[in-house]
Amino acid sequence: MLPVIFLSHGSPMTAITDSPARRFLQQLGGTLPRPAAILVASAHWETASPRFSAPARNETIHDFYGFPDALYGLSYTAPPAPAVAARAAGLAKAAGLKAAVDTSRGLDHGAWLPLLLAWPEADIPVAQVSVQSALGPAHHLALGAALAPLRNENVLIIGSGSFTHDLRRFRRNVDIAAPETADVTAFAQWMDAAIMAGDWPALADYRARAPFAAEEHPTEEHLLPLHLAAGAAGAGAKAKRLHRSVEFGFLRMDAYQFG
What we know:
single chain, 259 residues, alpha/beta, Protocatechuate 4,5-dioxygenase, Chain B, 6-stranded mixed sheet, 10 helices
């Protein structure tokens, strides 16, 4: 059974700029068993109900603007994984969730950026699963649980988001080496304690329980991939933090392995 991974993918600049998070992602692929396929839950694909990508070709989506030209020249040509997408959609439907296969969606930077660094050969088939921001954490824990059988089928499930994600602060601070703010530390410590305790009910209710939750995640799409990953691992699953760093003082780049 493969583990489940949550990654903070960070700014698109992570693809081309040295940082502790980039160096972590570059070595990640070598620390994990080689999967037959990868299913990525990306914060950058939001839909009303779960959708699973199965295009004829995985186009690289440059879903950002105002960045250096070098970023727009990057591509990640991993083959699609239509059988995984179909199997995952079937599992979600069997769990009572509305789900569908999308035959046009390529890979957004929530998927291709960490994969480009961790598996640069781009030779492992990849599918994406969308997040449903309007449905909240409990839904994503349930969706992850529905997808858990894929772990026994040599499919690596990755949640790709951000441990904290208040991008409004870029208006005030653009120093990547700025010290971490106290509110970010308090939120991250609470989340880490809940994850390490395997306390999925607390994770589901983080918005009410975690200090500064609304400040660190004004919208939830970048944390919901963590809930999906935790759900795929199962309540009470053992977890370990693979990486911890902060950028700009407010963007935590933590990564976890479940199971």
